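Second opinion, please. Please look over this fold, written as tokens:

===
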Amino acid sequence: MTAARVEKIISALDIGSSKVCALIAGKTDTGDLIVLGTGQRESRGVVRGCIADMEQAELSVRHAVEQAERIAGINIDRVTVGISAGGLDSMLAPVEIELGGDRIEQEDIDDLLAAGRANLDMQGKSALHVQPTLYSLDGVGGVANPIGLHADRLGVDIHVVLADPSPVRNLDLTARAAHLEVDNVVVSPIATGLACLTAEERELGVALVEMGASITNVSVFIGGMLVGLQTIQQGAADITDDIASTFGMRRAQAERLKCYYGSALSTPRDHQDVLDLDKEDGGNVDDGGTPRITKAQLNAVIFQRIDKIVSEIGLVLKHLGFSGTTGHQIVLTGGGAELKGIAEHFQAALGRAVRIGKPKGVSGVPEAHSGPAFSTLIGLVRYMASDRIDLKGPLDPGDDYADGAALGIIERIKRAIRENF
């Protein structure tokens, strides 16, 4: 049997607050995605998901990419970058025009999208994704291609995902400093949703919670698309900082305790389980001079921070309209999802079914990069390999950073409609 041939190289870069990850994948002639190389480096110069020191961040990017290139045996000069912070927001711009019962032509589609120009009020932000939803005829939706049909009124909702211009520009400049051209900047919930959610979940309605190191993104999918998102300025690293501060130890030791012994669930044995620490790492000292804490003490600190995060998540879900039907599920992913018992804790606190989302759809992923912490990275590859229409097109710093970006977007929409229908 002949081995599948790689027809296209896809490169992804995820610049997070705790780590920078690069992935080089190949799309074969059979449509499969295969990992060719991965790289990971401790993140420096990134604060709460945004670039704060470009020189330090550029070094982290360069080292992660070089590692992936060595493993893959190829060099890359273009990447797709994920963005997880920076004033992320989304909106639906409804558009409807009168047709008088005539047959719908391409010119009517053009007029419809041009009429929506006033609705695309960017409020000074950059549009990262501009995606038309299904069309409606006389108020009845669900029409994929209305050309050739008759209607009195033709409408469509244009879905736009926005971000503040400066964080987007800083990501682009950081990649360029590492000699990489940015093909696309993809909002992390969209990428992560492709990697962790099933098509049925996205269609029926699901909330995606990405708990990263310093931020937590809460997004809602319904009808197959992202319909709302909000960022919480807390994450798993805040749990680590709480442990370090409470017990007077180094962050590295606090992180080790959290990962190996920490849990979001309590058991009666926790008060008997004593964790011995190195003297230089602090903690309560017993008669023999050895620092020690109980597992119950450790988990009490973890519970306190998680409860704060869950409380904010609940408020965000209510704000996004994710309420009512009890069948709606929450999918928890990101590095914070690797804490023991966290899904059960979330489920009890939020009163909804919660599962851990792990990335799927790409073969050859190393075991170290197959967990929830790498969902966005895998999702970026799947996004670039998919045939979905994103009318925004490649990143163009000179276009949509401007306040008058709506005109350029409308022209792209017109062009994409002509090419795809």
